[in-house]
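Weekly structure sync, notes
Attendees: PL (lead), two postdocs, one rotation student
Agenda item 3: pending single-chain targets
PL asked that the sequence for the first pending target be pasted directly into the notes so everyone works from the same version. It is reproduced below exactly as submitted, 333 residues in total.
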Amino acid sequence: MSTNAASAAEHRVVLGTWPTPLEPAPGLAAALGLGSEDLWVKRDDLTGLGGGGNKVRKLEWTVGAAVADGADTLVTTGAPQSNHARLTAAAAARLGLAAVLVFPGAPGGSASGNLALDGLFGARIVWAGDVDADGLAESAARTVEHLAAAGRRPALIPFGGSNALGARGYAACGRELLDQSPDMSTVVVALGSGGTMAGLVAALGPARVLGVDTRAIAEPASAVAAMATEAGGRAVTPAELVIHQQSGDYGVLTPAVADALTLAARTEGLVLDPVYTGRALAGLAAAVADGTVVPGRRTVFLHTGGLPGLFGHPAAVRHAEDGLRDAADAADA
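Predicted structure, written out during the meeting:
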C-alpha cells in the first residue's frame, strides 16, 4: 500500500452498523442442491446507512479520506440507478456535505428506485449525455473543476467506490467473516466495479472467493487483481481469481437472474436486485451445477444490497408482478 493510502486509512469515518449478520439459508440451500447447513447469507444489505448495501464499507474509507482533506462536496459517477451514488449521497447528508452525482444520459422518464432516494438525500445530478466510461469520467473531472472554481472544495469519489483504499472495507469484511464462520470454504459475491471482491481476496486469498461477473466493467479480473494487490500487500494475478461468467449484458434481466430473484424470495424471504445480487445467485446456482461449489462445505452468499434499484428496473418489477397474477390464477383454480 502506498504512503498516501496508508495515511488516508487513518481517517476512516464510521457510517454503518457492524458486524452485519451471518444467517443460515437452509431452504435456499436445498433448492440449489446443497445440504441444509451448507449455505449462509452475509447480510451486507443491512449496513444501515441510506437503505444499506456493500458500498457503505468502501465509503467509510474513501469519504474518510475526503473529509480529512477538507472536502465539502462529494462528487461521484455511476449509472442512473447506481447504488454507490445513492449511498454517496446518503453519506454526504450524514456528514453535512453536498453531493453531486454525474450520470450518463439526460433527465426524463422514471425517477423511481435509487433516483428517488438521490433526490430525498439532497443530491444534485449532472447529466453527461450520451457518453462512454471515459466520457463519463471526463464529465466528472469537469464538474470537479467547475465546483472548485466556484469556491467549493470537491472530492471525487471513484466509480463504485472501487479503489485500493475502498477495498480495505471488504478486507475488513473478510476478517469479519472468518470470525463468524472460521470453516467457511467459499464466499460468492457479485463482481461489479471490483472493489468488493478485491477486498475479500486481500483478506481470504483468491481460492476462497467466487466472483460472478455482472459485466459492469470491461476487464474485471485485471481491476480486481490490481486492487487486491495494493489493499492486501501481496501480489495477486488475474489468473488466480475465480470468476464465473454469465450471459446477458450489464443490467439485463436474463431468465437465470429472474429465476434467482424468485428463488431467494420464495425460499428465504430475501429480496435481491436484478443487476448484482440476482446475478450473483444465478452464478452460485451455476457453480453448484458444474461442481465448483459442492455439498458438505460451507458457502457464504454475500448479499450486497440494492433493493431500491429493483424498483427502478421495469423488467424486474414486471417479473415480480407476474407472481401476483400467478397467485391469483392459483386461487381461481
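Discussion points:
- Strands lie at 22-24, 39-43, 73-77, 98-103, 124-127, 154-156, 184-191, 209-213, 242-244, 298-303.
- DSSP finds 13 helices and ten strands in the chain.
Action: rotation student to compare against the earlier draft before next sync.
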